[in-house]
Amino acid sequence: MNKNYYITTPIYYPSAKPHMGHAYSSIVADFFARLKRIQGFNVFFLTGTDEHGQKIQRAAKKKNMDPLTFCDEISKTFKNLSKTLNLSNTDFIRTTESRHVKSVQNLWNVLEKKGEIYLSKYSGWYSVSDEAFYSENEIKNENNNKTSIVSGSPVEWVEEESYFFKLSKWEKPLLEFYENNPNFILPQARKNEVINFVKGGLKDLSVSRKSFSWGIKVPSNNDHVIYVWLDALTNYISALNYPNQEDSLYKKFWPATLHLIGKDILRFHAIYWPAFLLAANIPLPKRIYGHGWILSGDEKMSKSKGNILDPLEIIDKYGLDQLRYYLIKEVSFGNDGSISKDKLESCINSDLANNYGNLCQRVFSFNEKNLSLSIPTKSKFEKEDLEILNNFKLNYKYLIQNIDSQNINFYVDFIVNHLFAANKYFNDQEPWKKKSDQKRMSTIVYVSLELIRKLSIMLYPIIPVSASKVLRVFNISEDKIDFNSIIDNEFLKSENKINKIGILFKKIDNND
Ligand code: MSP
Q1: In terms of CATH architecture, what is 341-487?
Q2: Does residue 239's CB lie within 6 angstroms of at least one atom of ligand 1?
Q3: How far is the C-alpha of 36 from the C-alpha of 34, rounded, in Å?
Q4: What is the reported pLDDT for 2?
Q5: Residues 11, 93: contact at Cβ < 8 Å?
Q6: Residue 230 phi, psi (nearest 5)
Q7: How many alpha carbons lie under 13 Å from residue 364 in its C-beta half-sphere?
Q8: pLDDT exceeding 90 applies to what percent of the chain?
Q9: Cβ of residue 24 lying under 6 Å from some atom of ligand 1
Q10: Which atom of ligand 1 lies closest to the CA of 273?
Q11: Which among 126, 274, 150, 100 is positioned nearest to 209, based on CA atoms?
Q12: 262 phi and psi, to 5 degrees?
């Protein structure tokens, strides 16, 4: 079994400050990276910034800065955001780094040598904001402003000499690939959109620009810079030291397990990227997952709409784990999700404070009062103990299967239901009434502690700081967290001391 797992986020345009949509892609990727790591996988988790192209050149010019100084500055804010979000990324790539430039030029040379690229002239619509070419039927005219039907972004007419990639040639091979690899694009609904688009006919793709200079130069013709998407997509292999295919990183981690992206950039990842790779004879990634948008009200959060919820402000006010939990639990993965402060607050109160926090608090306090903060000696489990404990083992296979098909909701629902069930178990068993039956009381507390341990392990990829805090109660340090141990009902060893912790999650009370 291949125990290597390579997950990527999109690389972000540093044309503006990071917002909640960016934070979302990164937090979800971090969730998978942490989960696979505690399952025993070697995980390579990549994120970074996409720094070339007209969009960046214009943004820099607006600030009267040269593009590299501009990128150095904003790329730093994305790097800092990775730290603030507590991402466990292995690497952070910037497309202005020489390792990346070398890799892109090499890929270009391979494509050119194979006859996949030719020089001609482009005339058509271009959206600088999407860095995308659109055909006439993808354009609408509103009050004399031409915009893309796909994204709503403004488009402008471009006419210039350009290199073209023979995308049309890969129409059939791509369709065959999708057919033979039915889970290459997920969720399924997105896959159908892609297939329909390809079936509609693929035109050759303009892959160089001549009218501006902020990009990687075409090696054989320095008048041209390489199209920013060909440049950007290559980050997924340049971070593994492509073109050195003998490099241990490349050998271990390519093809990628999962490119996690937003649905708006599916076309680039599910059509262009595989076509470039097929043409260069490089294996294709195993999966592209296009998640939905984070909406504010009914609209996509974006700078141009001015409806951005700033992740830093939210973290400052409510805490990081609170935000991570909310985004992972409340946005149905794969679909759009509208977020608001009210919903965030009620989620913190009901799930984190009342459900998880309360369970920990009650069980630990009871233990402190009656069992002097130690793991009690259990007696034989009763039917009701086994019923709840064994659920982890019974569902283990489904949990893994669902995670590996990115069905986060199944995973989170399991946790939430079992937090409720664990609270109910503690209530119903009434250990406070069993003081005359020490054996039973000890067993109930033991079972409750086991449930807290199992659930904290499951929660760790979502709320790493808080779950680690709880696991340290049992002397389980972060590097020792083992997902597989959730099926063990007798992991905790009696007599071991447990450590005290304070309140895990403060309730939000707006009357304070
Ligand atoms: N630079 C390209 C990606 C190149 S990958 C080889 C890009 N950058 S971006 O900064 O505009 O967007 C990065 C990611 O953030 C995309 O996956 C996009 O879907 C996601 N989001 C941006 N706004 C979003 C929301 N409001 N909601 C959820 N994600 C969205 O595209």
Answers
A1: Orthogonal Bundle (1.10)
A2: no
A3: 6
A4: 81
A5: yes
A6: -65, -40
A7: 21
A8: 91
A9: yes
A10: 6
A11: 126
A12: -85, 155
Q: Is 275 in the pocket of ligand 1 (CB under 6 A)?
A: no
Q: Are 244 and 250 in contact (CB under 8 A)?
A: yes
Give CA–CA dist 56/441, Å, rounded. Answer: 64
Which residue from 386, 406, 354 is spatially nearest to 489, judged by alpha carbons? 386
Q: Tell me the per-residue pLDDT of 225-276, one tens digit each, with 9 for 90 and over.
A: 999 999 999 999 999 999 999 999 999 999 999 999 999 999 999 999 999 9
Spatial contact of 340 and 299, defined as CB atoms under 8 Å apart: no
Question: What one-character DSSP code corresponds to residue 319?
Answer: -
- For ligand 1, atom 24, which residue shows the shortest CA distance? 21
pLDDT score of 296: 80
Q: In angstroms, how far is CA 4 from the centroid of its own chain?
A: 17
Ligand 1 in reach of 13 Cβ (< 6 A): yes
User: What are 143-196's pLDDT values in tens digits?
Assistant: 789 999 988 999 999 999 999 999 999 999 999 999 999 999 999 999 999 999
Q: Are 422 and 360 in contact (CB under 8 A)?
A: no
Q: Which residues in the chain come in under a pLDDT of 50?
A: none
Query: In this structure, which amino acid lies at residue 507?
Result: K
Reported as a single tens digit per residue, the pLDDT across 182-222 is 999 999 999 999 999 999 999 999 999 999 999 999 999 99
Give phi and psi for 298, each to the nearest 5. Answer: -110, 5
Residue 495, both tokens: 């007599």
Nearest to 271 by CA among 208, 197, 166: 197
For the whole prediction, is pTM greater than 0.90? yes
> What are the two backbone dihedrals, phi and then psi, of residue 163, each rounded to the nearest 5 degrees?
-80, 145
